[in-house]
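Predict structure. Chain length: 120.
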Amino acid sequence: MECGKSFTIEDILKADGVPRCSCGGIIKPDVVLYEEGLDQNTIAKSIDAISKADVLIISGTTLVVQPAASFINYYRGNKMILINLSEVPNEERIDYVVHCKAGDVFGKMLLDLNKKFEEI
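Prediction complete.
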């Protein structure tokens, strides 16, 4: 968290206790934790990608944590798909809603794709 150096999972697993860098700083995963701000460059790239997407699949989110929940407002395509165990606000805006565990849905899709490729 001090110098920005990157580490592999192996480096983290080898650590005894809280993983630390040689600079003395704590090693943190490259994810955004609750109440942390998002990187402005990441936000801009995300909005750009969403605005250009033909299909948007939203999975495993309540769509209430901001600012990420507002990113779907930039979608201009015509097929928005939600895969989520529970209902989310404004589901009527979404073209296809699947109330299941995301892992189950994606697992079934992969199995189906594998079967299709075997047939080719």
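Summary: The two ends are 49 Å apart (CA to CA).
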